[in-house]
Amino acid sequence: MNFDFSDDQKMLKEQVRKFLADKCPMKVVRRVLDGDETHAAEVWAGMAELGLMGTAIPEAYGGTGLGPLELCVIAEELGRACAPVPFSSSVYLVTEAIKRWGSEAQKKAWLPRLADGSAIGTLATSEGPQAPTPKSVRVSFADGKLNGIKVPVADGEAATVAVVLVNSGGTGARSLSLALVDLTNGGVARTRVATVDPARKHAQITFSDAKAELLGGKGKGVQLLNELYDGAAVLFAFEQIGGAEAAMWMGRDYALQRQAFGRVIGSYQAIKHKLADVYVKTELARSNAYYGAMMYAEGGADLPIAAAAARVAATDAYDFAAQENIQTHGGIGFTWEADTQFHYRRSRLLALAIGGPTAWKEKLVTRLERKNAA
Amino acid sequence: MDFNDTPEEAAFRQQVRTWLDANATRKSDDKTSIRARVDDPELLKKAKVWQDKKAQAGYARITWPKEYGGLGGTPIQQVIYSQEEANYLVPLGFFDIGLGMCIPTLMAYCGPEVLGRYVKPALHGEEVWCQLFSEPAAGSDVAGIRTRAERDGDGWVINGQKVWTSGAHYSDYGIIITRTDPGVPKHQGLTMFYIDMKSPGVEARPIKQISGAANFNEVFFTNVRVPDSQRVGEVGQGWKVALTTLMNERLAVGTPAGGVDVDELLELARDTELEDGPAIRNASVRGKIAEWYVQSQGLKYTKFRTLTSLSKGQQPGPESSIAKIVAAPKMQDLGAFAMELMGQAGIMTRDVPGAGAFQQQWMFGAGFRIAGGTDEILRNIVAERVLGLPQDIRVDKDVAFNELGKK
Question: Could B2 and A294 be called an inter-chain contact, meaning their C-beta atoms sit closer than 8 Å?
């Protein structure tokens, strides 16, 4: 039985943790949240120096040629730090999409720049308050031109390249495709949108005859997006687990220090049991995420189920940890000056990023039914 | 990352399989055939024979040193043996308390004479042991026990009552914690003994549980004489001795196997019609299935993480402490939900899907949340040992036991 990360992977994790503790403490998260910058550029540059963005990119395309397991340990540390950087958009999603379905020319054009952080990717699917489906997606692709509005787009202002879910003509699921767009060309207008987590800026992007290419074949948008999300779900799960643990320890530290009715509040069972429940949920999530990581790394047939289970468990853990951290803090936890808000904000952002828990539970049961029928 | 054995583990597994094939029958795929009743006298006899066979081969207690009849093996070898043994039709469960808790306690506190007399018969299944700790007024707060042991010449006389004692009616010996000095605070006045369960004045009565079954006993002690040579540890040091036993309990208590889980619930939901169609098409049913699946898988892979630590020769991390906190309420909730899917007929215990397994699970779940550490005590343990939060305030800490509750 070897159900754990390797010593090398643990060393990488430790390295990233130290780097972020040093370069990306909570005051950096606060600076981005409060300020105008799209992300913490100096943190992003430092991560590029460490080669983190190229972790899973083959050496031939300028990466370090490692894989999903290394990305998992990095994701966990980014979550722990609430890092205000576009890593999930650029690495979990866009880099993966181009790696898997890009033509040789597309890979050559983008992967080296994504690897060194000079390009930032974003995945644009949403078009307002509803799920993006063949019925609701209006952004159109025709004759190499993109038209329409995507909102909200994570890291949409900072991004230089986007993978966009588009309507490419036809009916039903076959009407959707993925398109690759260089956002630095013309026909792209971006405006910032207000969100619950301004430490990760989001944008509305309006495409007006923007030049685009299909990625991965016409009419395959729904299928490819599902495949992409399965791998990303595992990485998001690790990021959520890192966040959940950080929120848990933040609450615990406060409970050891704050006194009420003559003793520290951490000595009351109402607080002890609440924090114990956070721990339980986080460990359940971690165990599910480990299996997801293993399936992602080996391309196992169980990935769709493992990824969905990891996603459901990790979303539950981070949501719960972040909200109970505020509750443990009491009134001070609801103030702008407290750091509790960062996890509360981030937990909801990550919970909705690639589909919320209700949608993932539905996917999980559908996949279980399919497996049991087989 | 993989689930594979190391070459050494694979070799050991093969060795165990070869031995089991030669000495036991493989289980059929029929899950119900293994539901043997624990208090069937024939089963105990068979279990003793099987235990003796195991002991002769060194498999009865793999991690014990060879001088005690073990194999001098590693914890992961013990796990591998248990995994393999679970595939065979062999009677188990009678010796876990004795070998997992009682004898290790004797090993920690008794001399070579006592060990020379008791270890081998326990290992070979000739003598069964039980643990006499809980009392009607001392459950989670087990240091609050009232059973008295009073000096009488060169021995002691025990009077009182124990409860929730597994296997008391067929046990030959037991370890018992008693109060020898009620004039000091509760943890300080305790002393541990081992006792012959056939002594005059010992009476075990089965407790009928709400499930109708009787898996436990209450045991009454009336003027039971015990020689001082059967004292385990110093007079007044019983709590320290009990902690040794309880530490071993945490390693021994697991999740009961063979119950119904998400697969069975999924099947039930597929076969059950609700007012608006098959239950499996109902969104709230699907949501519940997903949540319990995530819990089941989470526990499964948490165990794999623990096994990985053992395989590497490391101490398991604190994550292993979450198992019962999750498994016990899930057992109860899943059972209750499955019953609901059956409509009003969900109250019936026989002619329903699963032949009553969901109903039984719901019923036993109520007990499982209490046995071997309540949900609440386990949360305290996680909060204190994992998160480093303070212990609960103990108002009885510095008060003599016989002064408690007098204010």
Answer: yes
